[in-house]
Amino acid sequence: MKSFNSKSGIRSHLERQCCKEEEPNSDPPPPRQAVTIPETSPAALMLPSPSIEPTPVPRGHDEAVLFACQRQNASELDKIATLGVIHFLGLAPFTVEDNSGMEQNAPAYPDGIKKLCIGPLQSPVTVPNPNKRKLMADNECQKCSPVTIPCLDSVFAFSPYSNVMRTRTFVELTDSICYLLNEDWNFQPQYRYGCAQVLAGCLLINTTNGHAVLANTVEVYGRTSMVDAHSEPFGVKKGVAVRTSLPKPGVAYYKDVWPSTMFAAIEGEKLVIGTQSFDALVTFSVRLDVRGQSSMGAATRIFQLTNEAEATATGIFLDKESLDTGVALCQDRKAYRITNSHLRYQLRQLKTKFYDSSTFVLC
What backbone phi and psi angles, to 5 degrees, belong to 237? Predict the structure, then answer.
């Protein structure tokens, strides 16, 4: 081994690489191997995002009722009957959360729910909003489409005349039928016969108190004296406008069709269905939710709509057979009566103005 006495000697030694000593028994170093680095996508370099559990959607009104009554997996008829019973009893579903944070529902009366909301509860009490009534479209089949208004089924479920009523088919008033009921009689005179037939046998159901009536017979009267001498009077009495059966703009649930109770000094309370073209007076009716109550004549005391709220909440359901017959009459420009038989029965109950020909129209 050489000794290095100066820096220059060490430098020359390193330049000549004289520091490597060969060992006779040493193996040659293994050859170097190429290492392949796999390509990594930018998405793989991102940290995994924490899993977010979806927030459960609160149940709606009908879903809450069916859950509370354990009817989620029941048949459609069973569901409709359950919703009808709850609606008829005036119950409403309320929502609370249990200890595990799951939604629980139960039906109760609105006054009881208000007391629950005031008391010291660990979980707040909420009430789902009821589903808005939906008119059936013209191209929808009544048997195939889901029933969105349980009031008709509740009446059939509790009515003492249920077996008789179920033999008939009823459809709710639609926009197209409302348009038909508001046609101008000056240019379409046959519509007075068709409209009377359309409304014959219709059902009026007050959803606020569950009262229901079958309007078996109606008499229609034109809006103006040009088409009907017995038209409803308009004017001002003692500085106040006379109340009429004209549909309320922006208030009526059906387009230009308005059921109401009108008061007459002689007859008393009259049940009237008003449109822009006519008003239909109910002259024979039967209550469906109770037994033995019927009314014949101009006055109807067994079914009254005392305010605008009840009139707006009243559903109108037409007898399918009467509706089809009435539409056919409206399309017949030569029609001058509803049917060929019982001509005297089709005369309106009038006591004055016998000199005018419109007094004797068969509607």
Answer: -125, 120
Q: Which residues of 134-150 are buried (b: 16+ CB within 10 A; e: fewer)?
A: ebbeeeeeeeeeebebb
Give the span between the Cα atoms of 73 and 142, in whole angstroms. 22
Closest among 269, 182, 261 to 222, alpha carbons compared: 182
Torsion of CA 259, 262, 267, 271, to 10 degrees: 10
Question: Which secondary structure element, helix H or strand E, spans residue 198, and what is its range?
Answer: helix 191-199
Give me the DSSP letters along 143-197: TTSPP--THHHHHHHH-TTHHHHTTS-EEE--HHHHHHHT--TTT-TTHHHHHHH
Q: Which residues contact 29 (CB under 8 A, 6 or more apart)?
A: none
pTM greater than the 0.70 cutoff: no
Q: Any alpha helices (H) in 46-109, and if so which ranges?
A: 61-68, 76-89
Q: How far is CA 330 from the centre of its chain?
A: 29
Tokens at 156, concatenated = 């059939």
Query: Over the stretch 38-89, which tens digit does the pLDDT of each residue have?
Result: 555 555 555 555 555 556 678 888 888 888 888 877 777 678 778 877 877 7
Helix (H) or strand (E) holding 93: strand 92-97
pLDDT per position as a tens digit, 1-24: 555 667 677 777 666 665 555 555
Residue 114 · residue 125 · CB < 8 Å: no
Dist CA 219 CA 360 (whole Å): 12
